[in-house]
Design goal:
The protein is of the alpha/beta class. The chain contains ten helices and seven strands. Helices cover 39% and strands 13% of the residues. Strands 1, 2, 3, 4, 5, 6 and 7 form a seven-stranded parallel β-sheet that branches.
Length: 296
Amino acid sequence: MMCRTFSLLLWAGLLSAAAMGLGVPETGHGEEADVRLVVRADDMGSSHAANVACIQAHREGIARTVEVMVPCPWFNEAVEMLKENPGLDVGVHLTLTSEWDLCKWGPVTGSPSLADRQGHFYPTTSQRPNFPPGTGFIEAKPNMAEVEKELRAQIEIALEKIANVSHLTCHMGTPTATPELTAIVEKLSREYRLPLDLPGAKPAGGFRGSGTTPEQKEAALVAILENLKPGVWLFVEHPGLDTPEMRAIGHVGYRNVAADRDGVTKAFTSDKVKEVIRERGIKLASYADICGKRED
Protein backbone atom coordinates (compact mmCIF):
# COMPACT_ATOMS: atom_id res chain seq x y z
CA MET A 1 0.00 0.00 0.00
CA MET A 2 2.87 2.39 0.84
CA CYS A 3 4.46 1.84 -2.58
CA ARG A 4 1.15 2.48 -4.36
CA THR A 5 0.54 5.62 -2.29
CA PHE A 6 4.05 6.87 -3.00
CA SER A 7 3.60 6.29 -6.73
CA LEU A 8 0.28 8.13 -6.80
CA LEU A 9 1.66 11.06 -4.85
CA LEU A 10 4.76 11.25 -7.04
CA TRP A 11 2.71 11.06 -10.24
CA ALA A 12 0.43 13.84 -8.96
CA GLY A 13 3.52 15.89 -8.16
CA LEU A 14 4.82 15.51 -11.70
CA LEU A 15 1.54 16.72 -13.15
CA SER A 16 1.57 19.71 -10.79
CA ALA A 17 5.19 20.54 -11.65
CA ALA A 18 4.41 20.49 -15.35
CA ALA A 19 1.45 22.75 -14.85
CA MET A 20 3.64 25.29 -13.05
CA GLY A 21 6.18 25.24 -15.90
CA LEU A 22 9.19 24.10 -13.87
CA GLY A 23 10.95 22.54 -16.86
CA VAL A 24 13.29 24.20 -19.34
CA PRO A 25 11.29 25.90 -22.14
CA GLU A 26 10.92 23.95 -25.38
CA THR A 27 13.25 25.15 -28.11
CA GLY A 28 13.03 22.91 -31.20
CA HIS A 29 14.90 23.82 -34.40
CA GLY A 30 17.93 26.07 -34.50
CA GLU A 31 20.45 27.63 -36.87
CA GLU A 32 23.82 26.12 -37.77
CA ALA A 33 25.57 28.26 -35.16
CA ASP A 34 23.31 26.98 -32.38
CA VAL A 35 24.17 24.36 -29.81
CA ARG A 36 21.39 21.78 -30.12
CA LEU A 37 21.21 19.01 -27.54
CA VAL A 38 19.10 15.87 -27.76
CA VAL A 39 18.70 14.37 -24.29
CA ARG A 40 17.42 10.80 -24.59
CA ALA A 41 15.87 8.82 -21.71
CA ASP A 42 16.14 5.07 -22.31
CA ASP A 43 14.31 1.94 -21.11
CA MET A 44 10.77 3.22 -20.58
CA GLY A 45 8.55 0.19 -20.06
CA SER A 46 11.17 -1.83 -18.19
CA SER A 47 9.81 -0.94 -14.72
CA HIS A 48 7.27 1.32 -13.06
CA ALA A 49 10.11 3.38 -11.57
CA ALA A 50 11.69 3.84 -15.00
CA ASN A 51 8.35 4.99 -16.42
CA VAL A 52 7.79 7.57 -13.69
CA ALA A 53 11.39 8.78 -13.89
CA CYS A 54 11.36 9.16 -17.69
CA ILE A 55 8.24 11.31 -17.50
CA GLN A 56 9.75 13.32 -14.64
CA ALA A 57 12.93 13.83 -16.66
CA HIS A 58 10.76 15.34 -19.40
CA ARG A 59 8.20 17.31 -17.41
CA GLU A 60 10.60 18.74 -14.84
CA GLY A 61 13.85 18.40 -16.72
CA ILE A 62 15.69 18.31 -20.00
CA ALA A 63 14.74 15.01 -21.71
CA ARG A 64 12.89 15.52 -24.99
CA THR A 65 13.00 11.95 -26.31
CA VAL A 66 12.25 8.63 -24.60
CA GLU A 67 12.92 5.08 -25.78
CA VAL A 68 10.18 2.51 -25.15
CA MET A 69 10.74 -1.25 -24.81
CA VAL A 70 7.68 -3.04 -26.21
CA PRO A 71 8.23 -6.56 -24.74
CA CYS A 72 8.71 -5.32 -21.17
CA PRO A 73 6.26 -5.78 -18.27
CA TRP A 74 5.49 -2.07 -17.79
CA PHE A 75 4.99 -1.23 -21.47
CA ASN A 76 1.21 -0.80 -21.12
CA GLU A 77 1.69 1.74 -18.34
CA ALA A 78 4.24 3.55 -20.50
CA VAL A 79 1.64 3.79 -23.27
CA GLU A 80 -0.88 5.42 -20.93
CA MET A 81 1.70 7.88 -19.60
CA LEU A 82 2.72 8.83 -23.12
CA LYS A 83 -0.92 9.54 -24.00
CA GLU A 84 -0.86 12.11 -21.20
CA ASN A 85 2.34 13.63 -22.64
CA PRO A 86 1.58 13.95 -26.37
CA GLY A 87 4.48 16.31 -27.02
CA LEU A 88 7.11 13.80 -25.93
CA ASP A 89 9.09 12.26 -28.80
CA VAL A 90 9.27 8.43 -28.73
CA GLY A 91 11.67 5.87 -30.13
CA VAL A 92 11.09 2.12 -30.39
CA HIS A 93 13.95 0.65 -28.35
CA LEU A 94 14.28 -2.63 -30.26
CA THR A 95 14.82 -5.36 -27.68
CA LEU A 96 16.38 -8.81 -27.99
CA THR A 97 17.90 -9.17 -24.50
CA SER A 98 16.61 -9.32 -20.92
CA GLU A 99 19.54 -8.40 -18.71
CA TRP A 100 18.22 -8.28 -15.13
CA ASP A 101 18.37 -11.31 -12.81
CA LEU A 102 14.91 -11.03 -11.23
CA CYS A 103 12.86 -9.07 -13.75
CA LYS A 104 12.54 -10.80 -17.14
CA TRP A 105 10.81 -10.48 -20.49
CA GLY A 106 10.75 -12.36 -23.75
CA PRO A 107 9.72 -12.17 -27.40
CA VAL A 108 6.23 -10.88 -28.14
CA THR A 109 6.12 -13.37 -31.05
CA GLY A 110 7.05 -16.40 -28.94
CA SER A 111 9.96 -17.12 -31.29
CA PRO A 112 11.83 -20.06 -29.72
CA SER A 113 15.29 -19.35 -31.13
CA LEU A 114 15.32 -15.96 -29.37
CA ALA A 115 14.50 -17.28 -25.90
CA ASP A 116 15.84 -19.54 -23.17
CA ARG A 117 13.93 -22.51 -21.68
CA GLN A 118 11.76 -20.15 -19.62
CA GLY A 119 10.76 -18.11 -22.65
CA HIS A 120 12.94 -15.12 -21.75
CA PHE A 121 15.41 -13.29 -23.95
CA TYR A 122 19.04 -14.09 -23.17
CA PRO A 123 20.68 -11.63 -20.74
CA THR A 124 23.65 -10.50 -22.85
CA THR A 125 24.44 -9.77 -26.48
CA SER A 126 27.48 -12.06 -26.41
CA GLN A 127 28.52 -14.47 -23.67
CA ARG A 128 30.28 -12.60 -20.86
CA PRO A 129 32.93 -14.42 -18.80
CA ASN A 130 31.35 -13.35 -15.49
CA PHE A 131 27.83 -14.53 -16.48
CA PRO A 132 26.55 -18.11 -16.29
CA PRO A 133 27.18 -20.21 -19.40
CA GLY A 134 24.52 -20.19 -22.10
CA THR A 135 23.44 -16.59 -21.53
CA GLY A 136 24.69 -14.96 -24.75
CA PHE A 137 22.24 -14.10 -27.54
CA ILE A 138 24.75 -14.45 -30.39
CA GLU A 139 26.03 -17.81 -29.13
CA ALA A 140 22.44 -19.14 -29.08
CA LYS A 141 22.45 -18.82 -32.90
CA PRO A 142 19.11 -17.03 -33.33
CA ASN A 143 17.08 -17.65 -36.46
CA MET A 144 17.25 -14.48 -38.57
CA ALA A 145 13.70 -14.91 -39.85
CA GLU A 146 12.50 -14.98 -36.24
CA VAL A 147 14.59 -11.90 -35.44
CA GLU A 148 12.92 -9.98 -38.26
CA LYS A 149 9.47 -11.24 -37.22
CA GLU A 150 10.07 -10.15 -33.62
CA LEU A 151 11.48 -6.70 -34.38
CA ARG A 152 8.72 -6.07 -36.92
CA ALA A 153 6.10 -6.97 -34.30
CA GLN A 154 7.68 -4.62 -31.74
CA ILE A 155 7.60 -1.74 -34.23
CA GLU A 156 4.01 -2.41 -35.26
CA ILE A 157 2.77 -2.65 -31.66
CA ALA A 158 4.47 0.64 -30.83
CA LEU A 159 3.01 2.38 -33.90
CA GLU A 160 -0.45 1.04 -33.07
CA LYS A 161 -0.40 2.26 -29.47
CA ILE A 162 1.85 5.35 -29.39
CA ALA A 163 1.25 8.51 -31.40
CA ASN A 164 4.67 10.15 -31.48
CA VAL A 165 6.99 7.36 -32.62
CA SER A 166 9.71 8.95 -34.77
CA HIS A 167 12.69 6.57 -34.84
CA LEU A 168 14.34 3.29 -33.84
CA THR A 169 17.16 2.57 -31.40
CA CYS A 170 18.70 -0.67 -30.14
CA HIS A 171 18.67 -1.93 -26.55
CA MET A 172 22.20 -2.91 -25.49
CA GLY A 173 23.23 -2.70 -29.16
CA THR A 174 22.04 -6.28 -29.69
CA PRO A 175 19.81 -5.77 -32.76
CA THR A 176 22.80 -4.42 -34.73
CA ALA A 177 25.52 -6.57 -33.15
CA THR A 178 26.39 -8.37 -36.40
CA PRO A 179 26.22 -7.41 -40.08
CA GLU A 180 23.33 -9.84 -40.59
CA LEU A 181 21.36 -8.32 -37.72
CA THR A 182 22.17 -4.80 -38.88
CA ALA A 183 20.82 -5.57 -42.34
CA ILE A 184 17.47 -6.58 -40.80
CA VAL A 185 17.20 -3.42 -38.70
CA GLU A 186 18.16 -1.18 -41.62
CA LYS A 187 15.55 -2.89 -43.79
CA LEU A 188 12.85 -2.28 -41.15
CA SER A 189 14.03 1.30 -40.70
CA ARG A 190 13.49 1.98 -44.43
CA GLU A 191 10.21 0.07 -44.59
CA TYR A 192 8.60 1.88 -41.65
CA ARG A 193 10.30 5.22 -42.39
CA LEU A 194 11.78 5.33 -38.89
CA PRO A 195 15.41 6.58 -38.85
CA LEU A 196 17.98 4.53 -37.00
CA ASP A 197 20.56 7.29 -36.73
CA LEU A 198 20.51 10.92 -35.62
CA PRO A 199 22.07 12.78 -38.57
CA GLY A 200 25.13 14.84 -37.71
CA ALA A 201 24.87 14.23 -33.97
CA LYS A 202 27.98 13.79 -31.85
CA PRO A 203 28.07 12.09 -28.42
CA ALA A 204 28.05 14.75 -25.71
CA GLY A 205 29.68 12.52 -23.09
CA GLY A 206 28.52 10.68 -20.01
CA PHE A 207 28.58 10.39 -16.23
CA ARG A 208 31.81 8.36 -16.03
CA GLY A 209 30.41 5.17 -14.58
CA SER A 210 27.56 3.87 -12.47
CA GLY A 211 29.45 4.48 -9.22
CA THR A 212 29.22 8.26 -9.42
CA THR A 213 27.04 10.07 -6.89
CA PRO A 214 24.10 12.32 -7.82
CA GLU A 215 26.30 15.33 -7.07
CA GLN A 216 29.07 14.02 -9.32
CA LYS A 217 26.57 13.33 -12.11
CA GLU A 218 25.18 16.86 -11.83
CA ALA A 219 28.69 18.35 -11.89
CA ALA A 220 29.67 16.20 -14.89
CA LEU A 221 26.60 17.26 -16.84
CA VAL A 222 27.15 20.92 -16.00
CA ALA A 223 30.74 20.65 -17.26
CA ILE A 224 29.60 18.96 -20.47
CA LEU A 225 27.01 21.66 -21.12
CA GLU A 226 29.48 24.46 -20.45
CA ASN A 227 31.84 23.09 -23.10
CA LEU A 228 29.49 22.14 -25.94
CA LYS A 229 30.37 23.76 -29.26
CA PRO A 230 27.83 24.67 -31.97
CA GLY A 231 26.29 21.61 -33.59
CA VAL A 232 23.98 18.72 -32.73
CA TRP A 233 24.83 16.69 -29.64
CA LEU A 234 23.32 13.52 -28.16
CA PHE A 235 23.26 12.61 -24.46
CA VAL A 236 21.85 9.18 -23.60
CA GLU A 237 21.06 7.87 -20.12
CA HIS A 238 18.60 5.81 -18.09
CA PRO A 239 16.44 7.68 -15.58
CA GLY A 240 15.17 5.74 -12.58
CA LEU A 241 14.14 6.11 -8.95
CA ASP A 242 15.62 4.75 -5.75
CA THR A 243 12.55 2.70 -4.81
CA PRO A 244 12.11 -0.87 -3.47
CA GLU A 245 11.12 -2.01 -6.96
CA MET A 246 14.26 -0.66 -8.61
CA ARG A 247 16.50 -1.80 -5.74
CA ALA A 248 15.46 -5.36 -6.65
CA ILE A 249 16.76 -4.87 -10.22
CA GLY A 250 20.35 -5.73 -11.10
CA HIS A 251 22.80 -8.22 -12.56
CA VAL A 252 26.37 -9.39 -12.10
CA GLY A 253 28.61 -6.33 -12.04
CA TYR A 254 25.75 -3.84 -11.70
CA ARG A 255 23.86 -4.06 -8.41
CA ASN A 256 23.45 -0.36 -7.58
CA VAL A 257 20.92 0.25 -10.35
CA ALA A 258 18.43 2.16 -8.19
CA ALA A 259 20.98 4.59 -6.74
CA ASP A 260 22.72 5.08 -10.08
CA ARG A 261 19.57 5.76 -12.09
CA ASP A 262 18.03 7.92 -9.38
CA GLY A 263 21.14 10.09 -9.77
CA VAL A 264 20.46 10.32 -13.51
CA THR A 265 16.95 11.64 -12.82
CA LYS A 266 18.31 14.16 -10.33
CA ALA A 267 20.86 15.41 -12.88
CA PHE A 268 18.27 15.65 -15.66
CA THR A 269 15.99 17.74 -13.41
CA SER A 270 18.76 19.76 -11.72
CA ASP A 271 18.26 23.52 -11.39
CA LYS A 272 22.00 24.02 -12.00
CA VAL A 273 21.81 22.05 -15.23
CA LYS A 274 18.76 23.98 -16.45
CA GLU A 275 20.41 27.28 -15.55
CA VAL A 276 23.49 26.49 -17.70
CA ILE A 277 21.19 25.59 -20.60
CA ARG A 278 19.37 28.92 -20.24
CA GLU A 279 22.55 30.96 -19.83
CA ARG A 280 24.22 29.42 -22.87
CA GLY A 281 21.08 29.42 -25.01
CA ILE A 282 21.38 25.69 -25.64
CA LYS A 283 18.42 24.47 -27.67
CA LEU A 284 16.90 21.25 -26.37
CA ALA A 285 15.70 19.14 -29.29
CA SER A 286 14.23 15.72 -29.98
CA TYR A 287 14.88 13.08 -32.62
CA ALA A 288 11.75 14.32 -34.41
CA ASP A 289 13.15 17.88 -34.44
CA ILE A 290 16.34 16.69 -36.12
CA CYS A 291 14.99 13.92 -38.37
CA GLY A 292 11.44 15.12 -38.97
CA LYS A 293 8.25 13.42 -37.86
CA ARG A 294 7.10 10.19 -39.47
CA GLU A 295 4.23 10.65 -41.91
CA ASP A 296 1.77 7.75 -42.28
